[in-house]
Amino acid sequence: MFDYEFPLNINDLLYRARDLFSRKEVVTRFPGGVHRYTYGDLYRRVCRLAHALDRLGLKKGERVGSFAWNTHRHLELYYALPCTERVLHTVNIRIPHEHIVHTVNKARDRFLFVDEDLVPIIERVKERLETVEGYVVMAPPGKRLQTSLSPLYYYEDLLEDQGEDYSFPEFIDERTPALMCFTSATTGLPKGVEYTHRGVVLHTLAISLPDAANMSERNTLLLVVPMFHVLCWGYPFACTMTGAKQVLPGPQPTPADLARLIQDEKVTHTAGVPTVWLALLEEIESGKYDLSSLKEVLVGGSAPPRSLMEAYESHGIPMVHAYGMTEAYPVVLVSRLKSYLMDLPPEEQYRFRVKQGLLMPLLRAKVVGESGREVAHDGRELGELWLRGPWIVKGYYREEEKTRETFGDGWYHTGDVVTIDQEGYIQIADRTKDLIKSGGEWISSVELENAIMAHPAVKEAVVIAARHPKWDERPLACVALKEGETPQGKKEEIREMLARRFPSWWLPDDVVFVDEIPKTSVGKFDKKALRREFGDHYVRAREG
Ligand code: ADP
């Protein structure tokens, strides 16, 4: 037994679904059709997988990586590893190859569970994976792949013939790591964070509250946020705990796939980044689908334009704005109107609703101005948002220096510059992190700049986050050429050079040539000045 209170374990979220909601469904879309099973089936398959993990020789505390879409198999990994005291590392499938290699090596993943269509990516990096002892392909039963991955296992084969019950540990120390993932660093390689049983359970309870994600057994959730991205914002846990039907969009979902799922599965709630909702809007407006079941859309990861919220609301679908990050499991703020603010005219209601929102229960926040003191709650004074609480991580995984920089005084310094108003609504005004957030995924401007500066004709280069009507932000390269060089053909050369190292979605859509990059008083590249001048480059291009 434990010498403190009863421990908080992810296992109990799963047991609740098994005991109370064994008839409720988990639905996954695959290109060939929909896969459907129940929480009862989920539990039995988690048990089989737990046996399979034992057979692979995985010990307590060891890590397994997943390289996968949102599917029922990924959900099984979400439970089988933590519930047997191992750790699931959800590898981001969209990051550059170099980052995949780094995150898998850093986490020391012993096995990688890979979706069948993602196998080619892992084949390209496998020589550099130092700790992986085997690959498990997730494909339909009986399907075989031509692949150079070795040793190779098939997920469905591993589960076959395994027992449908498993004796999970009776208690797990709640401080035990259960899952981990990585977040982009401003410079250098991604940084890892670990999520504990305790943190996951408390976060799950908190996001389930009516004023947060408003979870209920009666709801049907579409889990659009990738499961490799900050625990899919906690929904795989909150749905299972509450018994809500969950709908997983599977490999490469298109906006039309999402619309069809909402219609066919009668989805009531969903959550994701603004780019996804912008794309779905076209499907809604096409009138091809009956989306009348949809009651609410949670939007976060980037700030949604007010016009997007209004467009959804004109179709009778309220949008709720939320904010968080990898370091916070991720939910920190949710923007719902307090009852007495609902009497305000719509115009003034939006003033609050576009803000990132009110702090979740149990978290503590400070907004610290340049003077080092907390700012006034006047909605105007700017300061950096600092956080601490039961689901704010304490540091980066095996990164002492980066941990000291960001968590040194016991507070997590978010790097987000915000205001806080008299009602407590927090609004993001700026970001100190030198990163570009495009469609909910990060791009490192510093890495692109360094790569561009390696071009022989380039004197100086800066990559800024320029606003974009579809992707929220897109990289724009600002380049000063060496004496005697002309821009002729250089844009294409730069893009080709970058394409050899980075995924295509990292490439700057455009390159602007300037005589000189402006400098700050201490001689650094003045990105703010460039952002002022070129920040609307893509918006203007669209309008022009
Ligand atoms: P996620 O995108 O899943 O929330 P990340 O760790 O990738 O998590 O990104 C976190 C950062 O994204 C925050 O520090 C903030 O800069 C930005 N962000 C998250 N939510 C919002 C939002 N609603 N509005 C503006 N920026 C946001």
Provide the fold topology:
Elements: H1 11-20, E1 25-30, E2 33-38, H2 39-55, E3 63-67, H3 72-83, E4 87-90, H4 97-107, E5 109-115, H5 119-125, E6 134-138, E7 152-154, H6 155-159, E8 177-183, E9 191-196, H7 197-208, E10 220-223, H8 235-242, E11 245-248, H9 255-265, E12 269-272, H10 274-286, E13 296-299, H11 306-314, E14 319-324, E15 331-335, H12 346-353, E16 358-359, E17 364-368, E18 383-388, H13 400-407, E19 412-420, E20 426-431, E21 435-438, E22 441-444, H14 445-453, E23 458-468, E24 472-481, H15 490-499, E25 510-513, H16 527-534, H17 537-543
Parallel strand pairs: 1-11, 3-4, 3-5, 4-8, 5-6, 6-7, 10-11, 10-12, 12-13, 13-14, 24-25
Antiparallel strand pairs: 1-2, 8-9, 14-15, 15-16, 17-18, 18-19, 19-20, 21-22, 23-24
Helix pairs in contact: 1-2, 1-8, 2-3, 7-8, 9-10
The structure holds adenosine-5'-diphosphate (ADP).
Describe what this molecule looks like in 3D.
- This protein is α/β, with parallel strands linked by helices.
- It has a domain at 434-543: GMP Synthetase, Chain A, domain 3 (2-Layer Sandwich), CATH 3.30.300.30.
- It has 17 helices and 25 strands.
- The strands form 5 sheets. It has a 9-stranded mixed beta sheet, with helices on both faces. It has a 7-stranded mixed beta sheet with strand order 7-6-5-3-4-8-9, sandwiched between helices. The protein has a 4-stranded antiparallel beta sheet with strand order 17-18-19-20, with no helix packed on it.
- Helix 15 (490-499) links the parallel strand 24 and strand 25.
- Helix 1 packs across helix 2 (39-55).
- The longest helix has 17 residues, at 39-55.
- Bound molecules: adenosine-5'-diphosphate.
- Residues 183, 229-230, 300-303, 321, 323-326, 330, 356, 414, 416, 428, 431, 440, 442 line the site of adenosine-5'-diphosphate.
